[in-house]
Design the sequence.
């Protein structure tokens, strides 16, 4: 299974904000959209990502105010991205080794989507179900 297959199942809608808004405004968007991370896109260029984890560790635990802190101050700008053709095994390895939960999907400098650890796990579960079904069919023949 590939990243593109995951995007075809979950959808390719991307939620983004700019780095000049407050963290509060970004967290509000994440709450409204029920998402755990939001991409930072400016002039159609991917600049970073902001996750709930960034908020917890860089604002809450440091006693900062989300109303007075801007996204550019805490966003992750050293991005790890994947391509639509990458396998979910590759994505799982990246997520595990880099200790991240979200991967922007980029091709030709265009953001095509965002996948989460949950999307990858669901993809692996789906592949295992298909293998089990195949094996049941094979055994019962």
Sequence:
């Amino acid at each position: 299974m590939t990243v593109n297959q995951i995007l075809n199942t979950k959808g390719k809608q991307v939620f983004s904000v700019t780095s000049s808004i407050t963290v509060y405004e970004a967290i509000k968007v994440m709450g409204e959209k029920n998402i755990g991370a939001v991409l930072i896109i400016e002039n159609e260029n991917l600049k970073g990502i902001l996750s709930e984890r960034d908020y917890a560790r860089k604002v809450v635990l440091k006693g900062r105010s989300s109303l007075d802190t801007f996204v550019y101050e805490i966003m992750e700008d050293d991005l790890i991205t994947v391509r639509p053709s990458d396998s979910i095994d590759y994505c799982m390895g990246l997520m595990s080794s880099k200790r991240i939960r979200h991967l922007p999907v980029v091709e030709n400098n265009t953001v095509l989507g965002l996948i989460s650890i949950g999307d990858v796990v669901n993809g692996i579960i789906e592949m295992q179900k298909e293998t089990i079904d195949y094996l049941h069919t094979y055994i019962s023949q």
